[in-house]
Design goal:
By secondary structure, the chain is α/β, with parallel strands linked by helices. The chain is built from 11 helices and 15 strands. The radius of gyration is 19 Å and the shape is globular. Bound molecules: magnesium ion. Magnesium ion (MG) binds next to loops.
Length: about 350
Amino acid sequence: MRLSYRYIELHLRHTFTIARSSRDIEPCIIVELEHDGVIGYGESAPSERYGESAQTVLEFLKKVDLARFNDPFRLEEILLYVNCIAPGNTSAKAAIDIALHDWVGKKLGVPLWKFWGLAKEKTPVTSFTIGIDSLEMIEQKVKEAAPYPILKVKVGVPNDREIIRKIRQVTDKTIRVDANEGWKSRDQALDTILWLEEQGIEFVEQPLSADCLDDTAWLREHVHIPLVADENVTQLFDLPRLSGVFDGINIKLMKCTGLREAMRMIHTAQSMNMKIMLGCMIESSVAISAATHLSPLVDYADLDGNILITDDPFEGIDVVNGKLMLNDRPGLGVAKRSTVTEC
Ligand code: MG
């Protein structure tokens, strides 16, 4: 098995601002795993929030020696080896996991959704993310989001209410909010969420810092709409402590090491009676398509990372009026576009 990779930059359509950061360019590492004449594609979208950068991903991938394996079907063995190289590095590990799954699907000639026994028509509608911005720009972004029936609005800043009021002036669409740990106390979070409930908000993602689990449990007792964990959940081992604190979890391939771990988390969360969202970082169609293959199993999708960029190097799944549309191509069902900016 031969592994190669290259660093590229993805450019955002609009400056992307959330409660803790703001950016125009996202680093991305595209992985190719070649064996027996078949190439599997993978992707890493590192997040500083989880201790990764393009540099840490490239350093990790340098340590991965897949030449020691000669059968990509032995996913358990290969991914156990990759996982044991170093702790963390979850998006770098995800890149290899995704590439292996793409290879397996292509080799067998089946799309991943079929390989897993899923129904492709059961994909959910993805939300479209509205980042923090001036009220004028937020209004413009809501208009640009016309084809998407569900909005996920970034909050966790002093003018949260102005933002939601502005959006409600323009649309009565379903709104979910994501505070990205932005509210600084449980009282501030409670006050804001009770107001958001009056605005018909569907649920709240990550109201408080991931360190404040006791305060989040208290909050859960005092609000009436679901609380969904994002920064509080990375991998399967996080789930037991979230029971009774959150109503749902946001699984992202880049946080959890890839499709294999995401599948384990989905099954475990279902057994805990928790709602499941599949989310993403700013990613190309490689990683977004990978997550979409799992989406018939989940309650909510927030898989719009490839829609927020202007230079997606791949084409993959489609989105029609917000609904994620899987195709019948084998593996991930992605193909390189002809123009790719290499750095
Ligand atoms: Mg989030």
